Amino acid sequence: MKITRRIATTVIASAALLAGGFMMLPTQDATAAEQVDGKLYMVIAGRQPVSHLDPALKYDLAVRMMQQQLYDALVKYEGNPSEIKPWLAESWSTSDDGLTWTFNLAKNAKFHDGSPVTAEAVVYSFKRTMEINEGPAWMLEGFVEADGIKAVDAHTVSFTLNKPYAAFLSFLPWWYVVNPAVVEANIKDGDFGQGFLQENAAGSGPYKLQRFEQGTAYVLERNDDYWKGFPYENDRMGGVIYRLVRESAAQRAALLKGEADLVTGLSPEERQAVNSNKDISTTSLPALTSFGLKMNTTQGVTADLNIRKALAYAYDYESFIKIMNGEAKLQTSPFTDAVQGMVPIADMPRRDIAKAKEYLAKSAHPDGGFEVEYVYVEGFEIERQMGLAMIDAYKDINVTVKMVPLTWPNMVARGAKPETSPDLMAIFATPVSTDPDAIAIQYHPSSAGKYYGSHFLNDPDLNALIEKARAETVWDKRAPIYAEIQQKIVDLQPEIFGMMRNRGVALRNWVKGYQDSPIRMGGEIDFYSVHLDPN
Amino acid sequence: MGQLIVRRLIFMIFMLIGLMAIVFAISNIAPGDPARLAAGPDATNEMVERLRVERGLDKPIVTRFAVYLSNLAAGDLGTSLHTRRAVVDDLARYFPATLELVLFSIAFAVLLGVPLGMAGAAFQNKIPDHSIRFLAVSGVALPMFWLGLMLQWYLSLELDLFPLGGRLGIMTPRPETVTGMLTVDSLLSGNFGTFQEAVWHLVLPSLALSLPALASIIRVNRAEMLETLNKDYILNARAQGIGPLRIVTAYALKNAILPTLAMIGLRFGWMLGGTVLVEGVFDYPGVGLYATKAAVSSDFDPIIAVTLVLGASFMLVNLLIDLTYALLDPRVRSQI
User: Fold this and answer.
1) DSSP assignment of A131-161
2) The CATH number of domain B87-333, selected from 3.90.800.10, 3.40.50.2300, 1.10.3720.10, 3.40.50.410
3) Residue extents of the structural domains in chain B
4) Which residue of A139, A239, A443, B325 lies most exposed, with the fewest beta carbons within 10 A?
């Protein structure tokens, strides 16, 4: 049809013109950091949205990361190994019976609105969190009541505990202090200011909230008047943008293109891939996080200690390291290396088929011939590979493995009840404290129902040891109890103790002062010391 | 006509209730413990139970559905368990973004699809036709997710023509919210620079999202054009000396419009579904990402609300298309 060709050609030409029109639009400015009035804003590209900012509600890595910049707590975790540093509290003392803790506040501390951080504000913030009874409230539950927290004078706060609690101090970094005047002014229908604090901040931290654009980016402006100052001198540092980039391919592209200065959540391979660029470097640090295959100690085949031991001795531990590309280290105790009081356990199970068969012979299934269910996070490649390694390893003891990928919510739900908790479940657990109690308590019945308590271990001797250790306040007396606890947990084998994986970030070389600390979750950055130096 | 609209709208309400019932049932039957997830990883069992009671999650599913419907009648879409925000506010933020993306994609599909379809017909079985058909087949076959990544890699990272994702540069001041669609709002506030930037951010995601629709529109237009051009009345028109431009626009194109419209109605729904993938790749903060986040955390209220809004908009668009049909085609009009 010749007649229409001319028209078709015309139309195509106009389509081309239209496309050409698009090209006339301005191209992207390829400078690396965002700049505002000559100030540099560092861009962090991460995957997890910040669901809210309220220090009294549920925390996760993104929530905690933001709160750490906007708020201050009495003390703060810093460095590697993670240490508790004085922050709002310059110093503190404990009474001889371990029941009364007195904190002396820094007198120059002030909120973003210029008002001083007083003892009253500290008391108000603790009481608010306890009253709302969510988020960090569990940490002090049963040990401190709201009435036990008092402002002695404008700069002194005292806590009276119901019973001695060795881990008390190690939880305080997560109790952020809010500005009571700002919160009170924004209370609606007795909500403790929850509505306001969702997307607003009332803190004293090194950064101020500039914009909270849910699902896109969170912009923090450096608080140039921060009462504690900054550990670097760089007046050009203007702020930090936490930008959501959800796909790892897009994250890497953003880093290479200079749209992001620091990227979190990349796998070891992905980090190695970007590291070949001369402008980019990567970090790698073993975390406080443990990884284990939790076994249900109350139901099914794994209720039998002999079967649990057999499964532990038959597992191929080297596969952990292989799967992690060498970026991991095997656990030699239920406690990871960064936990205070960790001691390596001599008879930690390693692959030993003879021993596995020995234990199997003592069980109701002397020749194997049963199936174990292995539950892991759907789409989580390394956990899937561990399942495949398990299938191979357990062939040697005539045990078959049923691999069941589930979404995280479904895993949490299954692990919450002894009847539904699977034989084996892959769990990464990051404690919120470096105190050994934070790990030991995971093997106490009070953890039953939580994702790391899906083993439902309940051993009276172990329980007594854990309770005794947390009530003792002198470290020299606690340490031997924890050595005993670690041995006891390994003897009971409620899980196949796995590995400590390295985690890290990829960053452009002009990012200075970046520090990782094992207590922080993977992808949780502390902005305090980080700054951009283009020279 | 008026009667038809009323009838369809009433029917729509029942359809939506049915749709919600199904989604409500599915999301409740699926295993999962929303209260425990919302309370946080270390929450004590008492804290979890308190939250469960507070949010009515301990009640039987039928009661909860009834409560949900009565709240809905009062205009309350509930609150998210995770962000504690009212779902209405979230949707007001995310839905316009998705709508903007889908409208842009449809515009892409139509503006490129109609001329390409015509060109295919004009060069039937010649090289241009083959290439266009190749494009059409790939459009249906290529996964959007992969296509999005490829566009991102080539056009953004390699050629640096487009931004990697988002709706606007992070530090670009946002126009005052009127419709929630950045292109419209920036024009309303007279800020042409922001408008350009918003369009710039829309190009890659809408290209990825529009390809399947583009492919169908090409095919429909090509087929329709071929058929029409061989009709006797076209021969007659040519014999009467009517110019080719007029023949194509006044006769042939008019016939292709109806099936194209039908295709848009159908593809609109597909695109709303496709936003889940495309928004993820381009970090485009819309309903798709919001729904994914809600679904993986068993956050019921947002899940149901998204279903409701997407379902309603799909039905509304199809109603509009049916009405346009009636306006354009007297044969359809007489049947109403």
Assistant:
1) HHT-GGGGGTTTTEEEEEEEEEETTEEEEEE
2) 1.10.3720.10
3) 2-73, 87-333
4) B325
Residues 6+ apart with CB under 8 A from A336: A286, A287, A288, A289, A290, A342, A439, A500
CB contact under 8 A, B283 and A216: yes
Distance from CA of B278 to the nearest CA of A (A): 11
Q: Does B96 touch chain A (CB under 8 A)?
A: no
pLDDT digits (tens, 9 = 90+) for A419-470: 999 999 999 998 889 899 999 999 999 999 889 999 999 999 999 999 999 9
**CA–CA separation, A305 vs B144, rounded Å?**
50
Q: Which residue out of A44, A67, A134, A255 would a mutagenesis test of the B interface target, given it has the greatest number of B Cβ atoms within 10 Å?
A: A134
For B244-294, the DSSP string reads HHHIIIIIIHHHHHHHHHHHHHHHHHHHHHHHHHHHHHHT--SHHHHHHHH
Comparing alpha-carbon positions, the chain A residue that sits nearest to B283 is A245
Q: Are A231 and B141 in contact (CB under 8 A)?
A: no
Find the farthest-apart pair of alpha carbons in chain B and give their distance in angstroms, rounded.
86
> Which of A48, A198, A380, A412 to mutate to test binding with chain B, by most B CBs within 10 Å of its CB?
A412
Whether A250 and B244 lie within 8 Å, measured CB to CB: no
- Does A446 sit within 8 Å of B153, measured CB to CB? no
Residue of B nearest to A47 (CA): B283
Cβ neighbours of A521 in B, within 8 Å: none
Residues A145, A143: Cα–Cα separation, whole Å = 7
In this complex, do A18 and B111 lie within 8 Å of one another by their Cβ atoms? Answer: yes
Whose CA is closest to A385, among A479, A486, A291?
Answer: A291
Q: From start to end of A359-456, where are the E strands?
A: 370-377, 399-406, 424-429
Q: Nearest by CB to B36, which of A52, A195, A416? A: A416
Q: What amino acid is encoded at A266 in this protein?
A: L
CB proximity B297 to A under 8 Å: yes
To which H or E segment does residue A294 belong?
strand A290-295
pLDDT tens per residue across span A3-60? 556 655 665 666 565 555 555 544 444 445 677 778 899 999 999 999 999 999 989 9
Backbone CA torsion sign across B37, B43, B46, B47 = negative
> Is the Cβ pair A412, B37 closer than 8 Å?
yes
Alpha helices of A25-175 — where are they, by DSSP H? 61-70, 119-132, 168-171
**Residue A4 vs residues A1, A9, B128: alpha-carbon distances, Å:** 6, 8, 14
Determine, for residues A28 and B163 on separate chains, whether the beta-carbon distance falls below 8 Å. Answer: yes
Question: What was the ipTM of the complex prediction?
Answer: 0.82
- CA B131 – CA A375 distance, rounded (Å): 48
Q: What is the CA radius of gyration of chain B?
A: 24
- The pTM (predicted TM-score) of the whole model is 0.86
For the stretch A221-271, pLDDT in tens is 999 999 999 999 988 899 999 999 988 888 998 898 888 999 998 888 888
Alpha-carbon gap, residue A518 to A339, rounded angstroms: 9
Contacts of B298 in chain A (CB under 8 A): 409
| CB-based contact A219 B171, cutoff 8 Å | yes
The number of angstroms, rounded, from the C-alpha of A180 to the middle of its chain's C-alpha atoms is 28
| Inter-chain touch B118–A217, beta carbons under 8 Å | no
Query: Strands (DSSP E) along A144-265, which ranges?
Result: 144-153, 156-161, 207-213, 217-222, 237-244, 262-264
Give residue-wise pLDDT tens across range B240-254.
888 877 877 777 777
Task: Give the integer Cα–Cα distance in Å for A444 and A453.
Answer: 8
Residue type (1 letter), A412: V
Backbone torsions φ then ψ of A346, nearest 5 degrees = -65, -40
